[in-house]
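> call design_seq(struct)
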């Protein structure tokens, strides 16, 4: 239906009343604009991430635009000064990073109780030999210089009473008169699942797999910064601590299923790790403008340095060992456990 037909049907107008038709069209346009504006404002208020993203984009663009204007009016001497300053800044940033990196460059050394006594005295007394606890340190943060974070792990068995039986038995289905009078079908007929009890197998219909209301494990053990705020707590909470502490992982009540999930996650991580190495190799080739159809250099066994070439090839192959990479990463920046005996110096 056109606007003229709507004007005639809603306001009893006619084709010759052009003045009122203009007012009708203007009112329709204003109503449409107000509706779109209200909807857009409601969308922005419901999703505040759009405001943050727009502010970040505008801030980055202003910084880039100002830097472009400044560089255009610089003399060669001023450009040389800026180049020297940026080079010196990169050098100092590398030194700062190496300092923090060397602080946690140790493996399975140090008493975790003594370290926690200096970092978080309130929790140092909770560690004993039965917990078999271990402290791990990492670098992180959203700004430079990085912040040292720590996390407490337990190498011993953790007894979680609800983990192996997470079902909510209070909401179990009650047997009513109708279900009591209805007899089951012939055993073994139409049964899709089999239950093994010892060496005997019994057919049974599986119940529903709705896990709503089941117990869900929540460790609430995130990465916490090594700062003075731990000793003197403030209202400021580190965002990484909040994000890592509120992260919940699926914890199946069957140990066999958990082991299968761990193996599946390791395979997926290895696949992503190999894919990243391959993509980085392709990017390096494209940056060097090397053709992809070139023949790879072969080892000349008649030359004098063929053993050196072979050793380089073996070193390159050893770096592709994902298990060695994971073992190296998990043992970096870790203390001994409370149960271990420290070496006598």
């Amino acid at each position: 239906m056109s606007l003229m037909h709507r004007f005639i049907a809603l306001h009893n107008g006619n084709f010759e009343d052009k003045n009122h038709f203009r007012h009708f069209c203007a009112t329709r346009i204003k109503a449409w604009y107000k509706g779109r504006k209200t909807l857009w404002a409601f969308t922005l208020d419901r999703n505040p991430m759009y405001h943050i993203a727009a502010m970040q984009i505008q801030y980055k663009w202003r910084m880039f635009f100002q830097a472009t204007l400044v560089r255009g009016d610089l003399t060669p001497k001023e450009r040389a000064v800026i180049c020297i300053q940026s080079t010196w800044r990169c050098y100092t940033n590398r030194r700062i990073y190496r300092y923090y990196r060397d602080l946690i460059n140790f493996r399975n050394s140090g008493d975790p109780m003594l370290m926690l006594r200096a970092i978080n005295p309130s929790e140092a007394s909770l560690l004993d030999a039965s917990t078999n606890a271990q402290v791990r340190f990492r670098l992180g943060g959203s700004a430079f210089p990085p912040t040292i974070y720590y996390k407490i792990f337990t190498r011993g068995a953790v007894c979680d009473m609800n983990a192996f039986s997470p079902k909510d038995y209070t909401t179990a289905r009650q047997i009513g008169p109708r279900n009591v009078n209805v007899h089951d079908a012939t055993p073994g007929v139409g049964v899709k699942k089999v239950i093994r009890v010892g060496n005997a197998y019994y057919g049974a219909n599986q119940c529903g797999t709705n896990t709503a209301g089941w117990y869900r494990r929540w460790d609430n053990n995130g990465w916490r910064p090594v700062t003075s705020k731990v000793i003197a707590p403030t209202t400021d909470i580190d965002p990484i601590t909040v994000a890592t502490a509120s992260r919940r992982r699926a914890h199946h009540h069957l140990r066999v299923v958990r082991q299968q999930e761990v193996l599946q996650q390791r395979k997926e991580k290895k696949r992503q790790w190999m894919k990243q190495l391959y993509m980085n190799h392709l990017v390096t080739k494209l940056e060097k403008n090397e053709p992809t159809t070139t023949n790879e250099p072969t080892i000349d066994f008649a030359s004098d340095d063929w053993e050196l070439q072979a050793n380089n090839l073996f070193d390159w192959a050893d770096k592709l060992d994902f298990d060695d990479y994971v073992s190296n990463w998990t043992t970096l920046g870790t203390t001994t456990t409370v149960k271990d005996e420290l070496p006598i110096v």
